[in-house]
Specification:
Length: 136
């Protein structure tokens, strides 16, 4: 059941990225170019996603337990840590330079020019991150 839920969520996410135009790196770079020809479309996509999430989260948390898990996860580390800040900065730099983040990179990996290189580098970054022990 968990795998099916993940598949459905992934397909919905990919469809949302595609319909919102976020698989086109030019749209993302246009949003990040606040001193040039700024394109606010990403703000609307994010606003729509946050609205749906906020409403769905309230509805889901009324349940006793999740559909595909024995319990809701308990968040224990909510602090701002050095690895979090460094990772966020690296993510932002990569996003700004390429116009892609992991979701759109996965969606477009097979057909958009240049995405294969980004996707490969992203997987390499995941691998490197797992090599370095992070103290929390």
């Amino acid at each position: 059941m968990a795998a099916l839920s993940a598949l459905i969520a992934g397909v919905l996410f990919a469809l949302g990225l595609g319909l919102g135009g976020m698989t086109d790196a030019r749209n993302v770079r246009g949003f990040l170019d606040v001193t040039g020809d700024w394109d606010p479309s990403l703000a609307f996509v994010m606003g729509g996603a946050l609205t749906v999430y906020g409403l769905a989260r309230r509805w889901v948390l009324r349940r006793e337990k999740p559909v595909a898990a024995p319990q809701f996860p308990q968040l224990s580390n909510l602090g701002i840590t050095r690895p979090l800040l460094i990772g966020s900065a690296l993510f932002g730099i990569g996003w700004g330079l390429s116009g892609l983040c992991p979701g759109p990179a996965i969606v477009t990996a097979g057909h958009a020019p240049g995405t294969i290189g980004f996707f490969t580098a992203m997987l390499g970054g995941f691998w490197l991150a797992n090599l370095a022990p992070i103290k929390r």
